[in-house]
Every structure is written in C-alpha cells, then in structure tokens.
Structure of C4-dicarboxylate ABC transporter substrate-binding protein:
Amino acid sequence: MFRKLLIAGVMTSALAVSFNQAQAADYTLRFSHQWPPVAGMQKDLFQVWADTIAKESDGRIEVEMYPSATLAAPPAQYEAVEDGIADVAAAIQGYTANRFPLTQVVELPGLIKNAAHGSCIIQSLYDEGLISGEYKGTRPLFLFTHGQGLLHTGDKLIATPDDLTGLRIRRPTSVVANILEAAGAQPLGMPAPESYQAMQLEVIDGVALPWEGALAFRLNELAKAHTSVGDLYTLSFLVTMNEDSFEDLPEDLQDVITKNSGMAWSEKAGNLFDALDAKGLKQAQDAGHTFLTVEGGVDNPAWKPVLDKATETYLADLESRGLPARKVYARAKELAATCK
C-alpha cells in the first residue's frame, strides 16, 4: 500500500513539474530572421540572446525562433516587427530602401576594419542620437555590422574596377549598388538567401558578401575566386522589438530586455561575425580556391577615384534631401579612429 502511495506521489509530483514547466512562460516573443537554423548567427547569437532572456526572466519569457525567413521575407523583417507579425526581428536596414539612409552611411568604403569595429561605430551613432530618429516605428535592441565585404566570383579575380565591367553582381543594398555601378558592374538586388540559386542558374556572375555570408549561404560551393579590396563596403543590421510587445511586459521584464540591449550585445554580434568570417575564409582555403587582396585596399590608385566618387555621390544626395549626412559621416570617421 505504501509503495502504491509512493509511486502515485512521485507521478503526481512529476506531472505537476511538467505542467508548471509548460505553463512557466507568461509571455512568448516571436523572433524572426533570414539566417538558416544551422548558421552561426542563429546558433551563437540569436539563440543565445533568447536563452539569456528566458534565464534572466526566470522562465517567464519564452522566445520562439523563426529562422530562414519563415515568418517574413528578408526585406520585410523590419516591417514584420512594426506590424506585430513578429515581436523581435533581426533586420538589414538596406533591404528597406530609403528607410535608413543615415544609418547606411556606415556602408560606405573605407570606414571599418572588421565587424567588431563596425558594430562599435554604428551602435555609438545610435546611442549618440545621430541616427536614432530613423527607428521611431520599433524599439531597437542592438545594432551591428558584418565584416569587410568581398567580391566572390565564379573563377575571375577582380584586380581593378575594369575587371567588373559587364559582370552581374548580387548587391545587398542601394549603397553597394552605387559602388558596383561606379566600377562598371551590373548590380542585381537580392537578399543573401537567394544568391545561391541565382549563381547556380547563372543569373549572376558573382556576389558581394562577407566571408560569413559565403559560409552561411553556401556560396563557397559556387564561387571559386575571391577578391578583397579592403573595406569595399559593409552592411548594417539591427535586432529590434515591437513597441507594443515591449510595453505589454511588466516593468521587471522590460528591465530584462533593456539589460540585454545596447553596446554589450552589439559587441557580441560583431565578435561573432568576425569569427564566422575566419571560418568562411578557411573553408574556401581548404577547398583550394584562388584569392586576391588588392594592394592598398580602398586607397589603391585604380580603386580610390571610383570609391571616392561613390561616397561623395551618396552624401551629396542625402544632403540635397535635407539630411545631415556629412555630419553623420564625419562622426563615423571619428568613431572609426577610437573604436577597437
């Protein structure tokens, strides 16, 4: 009899624990992004953030991950947060044309050394209020950049801008499109996840991506020639949250979100991007690909006039629209000298 009561008690306790665990989350946040489930950005950044939120909220917040653009298309990630389709998303500012023109100043050539450096610059610009006005529709948690962008082509190295003449190159944003166009290429806009099929079907001749992107989206399987022109360009990202979703949380849980925002997480993102860049490069090296590092990078005599013109064209266009592009650019250059 005692044994039956003991077993019944154990089962009741187990069921109670199971029920309490299932009911533990008071709030569920849907986190959307474009990276595959196996990508480093998902496993080592976004999921780590989600796990941190769950732990520090004592399980009262659960974060459901929606990778591979399953909740919203890559260009619609930011709008998905605005509209409440997602509670949190990792978005690429340049995928939403003309929405974040001052933020995209960081994409211009010659500013960043690597992703950690670029992330410090962009997060500082936001924290100082120079670009924060572009984000009134959501609540940004942290901003970051990828590392230096490269040109990955089938088998042709790009020693000078003339080598780009007529090549169809996937470009991530309009800023990068202007750079490629000035060099004589035919830029074609598409999100990174679409690049593999486009190159496989020979719709494009190559892609502009960091090494992380070549790794995450399997471009190293198709692109065998890789050209680095130093900081040819970078790309800006942010993890942002729906305003109502944040306001619906009690104050103590809002504090958990706020604590896991800002420069500390920007640094984590930048450091991870740099680690993934190294991994993507090694993958291509192990596969016996060909590489070219342009001497002098963006200051190379063949490249500098083209890149300087692209930079000036972008800044002048924003200024003509009444935006303080030169002020933001000047501050970004100052930050580039102090960020590590």
